[in-house]
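Ticket #4471: structure export looks truncated?
Reporter: QA, pipeline team
Priority: medium

Steps to reproduce: submit the single chain below to the structure queue and open the exported record.
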Amino acid sequence: MDELGRPPAAAGPGLERSLDPVAARRAMLPLLVGYLTFGQYWGVWVILVFDFQRFHGLTSSRLGALYMMLSLTAVAVMLVGAPRLQRLALTVTVPLSLLLLAVGSLVIAVQPTDVVVVGFLLVGAGNGLIDVYLNVAAQRVEVATGRPVLQWLHASYALGGVTGAAIAGLLLVGDVDFRWGLALAGLSLAAAAAWNARTAPPERSPEGAQTVFSISALFRTPALWVPALTVLFAFLVEGSMDTWSGLYMREELGASAGVAAMAFIAFSGAIFLGRLFAGTVLFGLGSRTTIIVAGVGSLAGGLLAIVTDDLIVVAIAYLILGFMISAAAPAGFSLTEGIDEDPTSAIAAVTTVGYTGFIWSPPLLGYVAQTIDLRAAMAVIVIATLGIIVAGLMAPRRSRA
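Actual output as written to the record:
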């Protein structure tokens, strides 16, 4: 089942073949830890990016351009690289994905300024493969065990954001060089890769499985544009908070590393709790209402964060924003139910549109931050919540999810 408690919609042909239940249970914890270290990397990064930017003398616009290159690489890897690795067993592709991000983290920690782009390209490639293959592996385990592994997997990412921000904050409070934080994140990913190399599902992707993200279904079935736009704006908010929220607090509001870490912990912790309870919320309210409520609540939290300079109030606003935005993307995906389209193609198309937000939003926010200030860049994130509300209002009125 997915985050909404449904059977995996994106399970390609052949996924109905059950793994050995004992092997599947053995693979579950390493996969969750793998996704936790994935989120932990970004939790570390959002606190340390201020120090990274100062160390290399990067402007906000150049940082935004680097983020765009990272996202383009991730999408290119998902479109071109991942399908060509399907013939390999998941005991290879899962650890390879984690290891690539580990190398990227270590390279960012040690690379000189004139080749700073190399680390971002490696991190983008690792992100793209992780988003494909850890989810594929989790689907296999979920089918075999009947447990909501995908729901736990994405909740573990948010939990990793909590631990990563805490680690980075403690290192900076202790006056430790920020590069050690990136190195620790890389070593954690490498350890998770080694564990998954022994326990990941041994099967190769089944013949005909669709791991390529495609938008063709959107043109065959225009009704998919509503869930696609919901996921786009939800991913834009979540991804932008992962990259800009810590910098906003430290540069614009003058927060210490420890305070910025606590605020991001509130945001990621709220997403973690929200994702765990997303299925219950959707069952009670229905997808359309959930999207509207998530959008309105996210708008309120975002507005509160940008209209005040009080750091405690900003942290509370991050908590509200995190909890409310957590249900938006799962509810958007749930709208694909009942649409006359192959479930695999529908989920793939919606996910593809969602990922475009990671491509064009970083340079936009970087430009706004450079030409105006970081508060204006945060305001762009808040404006994106209006897109969630509009998409919710456009969603069909149907029975409860």
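Status: closed, not a bug. The export was complete when the record was re-opened. Leaving a note from the reviewer for reference: Confidence is low (pLDDT under 50) at residues 1-17, 206-211.
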